[in-house]
Design a protein that fits this description.
Blueprint (H helix, E strand, L loop, with lengths): L3 H4 L5 E5 L3 H14 L4 E5 L2 H9 L7 E5 L1 E2 L2 E2 L2 H9 L5 E5 L4 H9 L4 E4 L4 H12 L14 H13 L3 H11 L4 H8 L3 H15 L4 H10 L10
């Protein structure tokens, strides 16, 4: 006869706090492939994150928290999470990747700092490292100078055509090519051509990274809007 210990399955519970649908979907897919045993709870604002953790005080293994989303700005959400749930690891998930912000996050108690510009595979590796008890952050010496990085991103952004800008706003909103084609009354193949051109002009390799570039150019973290 098998014991209860033989049949018990350990589930890793991860709460994602991010208000960008594309980031949520990409992380969910990446975690599903890298950690199929993980239970992923998606939250679009800080209140939802707090409620999700409070409902599982002993069952949340990691919170991934965006620095800027409804209910929080900057490090306020991190401080609030650590004050209410000091034993739950919290890692920052952000489009910001300057060395000063990363150092401050770790000094303030974050268990890791994951830039959204990482590939999904690299994000999954970082999450696994944090779950194993490590404090993970990108090598600070490898980060670009923020001012130069922003100027280059702005130059690439300015190279997009008006139609490509409209499509980029829809990518940020998490819409698929078929939905974009319907909204713009063009063929899906036309949308695919535009998306490929957008990725090339922004020097990125995925829709998620394109959305991150757009978010970095937004004002006050409100996101890109037409």
């Amino acid at each position: 006869m098998s014991s209860d210990a033989d049949t018990t399955t350990t589930t890793t519970t991860i709460v994602i706090g991010d208000d960008h649908p594309l980031v949520q979907a990409a992380l969910r897919d990446a975690l599903g492939k890298a950690m199929p045993e993980a239970a992923v709870i998606e939250c679009l604002d800080l209140d939802a994150v707090m409620a999700a953790v409070a409902a599982r005080p002993d069952g949340v293994d990691l919170v991934l928290l965006d620095l800027n989303m409804p209910g929080t700005h900057g490090f306020a959400g991190l401080f609030l999470m650590l004050a209410h749930h000091p034993t739950v690891p919290v890692a920052i998930l952000s489009a910001l990747q300057d060395a000063d912000t990363i150092r401050r996050a770790l000094a303030y108690g974050a268990s890791g700092y994951i830039p959204k510009s990482l590939s999904m595979a690299a994000m999954a590796d970082a999450i696994r490292a944090i779950l194993a008890g490590d404090v993970w952050a990108p090598p600070l010496s490898a980060l670009d100078t923020p001012e130069a990085d922003e100027a280059e991103a702005a130059r690439r952004f300015a190279s997009l055509s008006p139609q490509q800008l409209r499509i980029l706003t829809m990518i940020v909103d998490g819409k698929l090519n078929k939905q974009i084609a319907g909204d713009l009354n063009v063929s899906e193949q036309t949308v695919k051509v535009h998306v490929s051109s957008i990725l090339r002009k922004l020097n990125v390799v995925s829709r998620t990274q394109a959305a991150v570039v757009a978010g970095r150019l937004a004002v006050d973290g409100d996101g890109l809007r037409p």
